[in-house]
Amino acid sequence: MNSRLWIGTLAVIASMSLLAAAMSSVFIDFNWLPPVLIIVLVVALSGALLRMSSRIQASGLTVLLQLVIGLLAVLILCVPHTLAFGILPTPASMLELFARLGAGIDDMYKVIAPADSTPGFTTILIVGFGLITMLIDGLVSDLHVPKVAGVLLLLVYCIPVFLAPNELRWWHFAAVGAAFIVLMLAPYFEQAESFGPLPPLLAGGLALLLGVGIPVLLPDVSVRPPRQAQQADITVVNPFLDLRSNLADQSDKPVLAYSSSDPLQPPIRLTSVSEFDGQTWKPAEFDIDPFAIAVDGLPNPQGVSTDTTTTEQTMNVNVGGFDQSYLPAPYAPAQVDGVSRRWIFDKDTLTIVGNGEIAADQEYSVTYTSVEPTAEELTSSEPVTAGQFADTLALPDDMPSVVSDTADEVTAGAGNPWEQAVMLQEYFRSDQFEYSLDAPEEASSDAIADFLSEKSGYCVQFSGTMTAMARSLGIPARIAVGFAPGEETGENAYEVAMSDAHAWPELYFDGIGWVRFEPTPGGPAGTPPPWSQTDGSAGAEDEPTEEPTEEATEEASEEPTAAETTPAAEDETAGADAEADGMPLWWIPMAVLALLLLAALPALVRILQRRRRLAEPLDPEAVWEEIHALGVDYKLAPAASLPVRDHLNELRDAVAEQSADADYLPAVFEDLGEAVDQARYLDRSRSDLKHAAPHIDKPGIDEAVESVRTHYDRVTPRGTSLLARLWPASVFHRR
User: Are 333 and 298 a contacting pair, CB within 8 Å?
Assistant: First the structure.
């Protein structure tokens, strides 16, 4: 066993393991670390084992075989369910692997480090560390340039430096420093092997001491300004985009489950949309406050006085596959337990947003203040000062006049803002309007005007139109986006599906704050809250509207539901399986034939080389090259320092015993050696061997070369002899 070879391999394993430890700042958990360390071990150890075979090393196939072994290990670690018998790749294996890599790239755009190690992230790390390990292993063990490998190591470490600078600690620098020093000392480990294990141990201890000790003396990077402070604003995606998509599919795919004993069953809010430019409603941007951490508690809701009727409620939430940066919670959340400190909030809207986090797979509890004003409290509310609510009173200059004219007409006779709001709600919930998914997928100014004319739409049109009309009356208004309460699955237990996506208006009343209204007469909306009804007539008016509306909703959702019965991810997998199942079987014999041709290619090349070297007119150097190539094939090539004539004399003595003509073949070798010397040392670049000596001619050379092959077959193991013919090493390597 070549101990030097293993010393280099162990140095690569140690440095890559330390690099993996230094990468831990990018992730919250360590679930990614075991498979990464496994791929490092597999790639490095397979390279060492392959180099132990001089034939494989001479053939130049080490890297190719190492790549094949590494790829198989990647498939086993990342997509084991696609492998036949748990180890054999199938056509679906590579498709699933690329899908995982694509999912990892998508995750990069969704989260900010440190993040959870999703399956996509883990796949990227496994593939990346496998390739980097193979590259560094080649630089150290084959090319013997550890300095270049060390530079590559430091370049890889730039990833956590840029992605998670705030999470770096002294031991991250210690790990990468030790990894770099281990690579730099790898040649010295090899040179010290004759002195026993003490020098490598001392060098390793020195590397660890330098890697750990130097960073301790440096300033702690945690004192640097937090990265959040470098960003002025956080812009969240317009939730209407997802809302319209969710309303269109009407699928029953679960989004979240929750339990709550709140008798009002409030909708579950994601955020509030307040900016309207005449074309698009979108959330207002808000400054990032790194200290506005949801688990530390949220402030009291805006505008709620001590005289306002409120109750404290608790909801336990279990989110499923909801890949958004909003955390679902009823309004107004006061305390969130069970999530990380990277969930921050906007103090104005009490929207909870993940700073590098998504809501998928989160399990938490929310304590919230349920604002439940009475009609008397709302009636006594004074009109607000327009200057303080300019943003939530603003309307575009090109807003159609029909919006304000209709608002004035509907609310004629109202004595206060609350009565105006109730009249607007009753107007939309009357039998003049119907709930339909066939409406345009927008709530722009033109769409609002069309909605007031056609009187058919879904929650986006109802909430957007009531919000615009309330603003025209001087009532601050915004749109809340989220989910309706969902379906009851047990005592105080509910499940919310994608079809429960919903939007509703929130109107502001002085001393009470933001109050929910429900103008949408159908769909998942449910009944209006009690403070938005005067004498119960609104609820009575709902009944004739809801029956046909529900039927219309079912009819409108039949086609999307049938089309959406399979989630997108399952569609892709099913498509991949169908493609694999439908693949014609002719590719199997073609693949086998291609492999056989590939395996036979070196032998074919070797035959062509032999014919070229032994072609007339005979060249002594070419003939000697053929004899030397036979020695390489059989692993019996002479040392470079051995003169040609001496080697040919050895072959002459070896084949003389097996020759039928004891005088003829030895003379061929002697004359060949003399001709090679003449060509090399007497400046004769080409010599016709027919005229060099009477024993040399084409049949004689062919017989001499064949006798050498016969001799090598006799003195080498049978496996070596067979491999020399089927996979001749001289095709790949000459020494």
Answer: yes
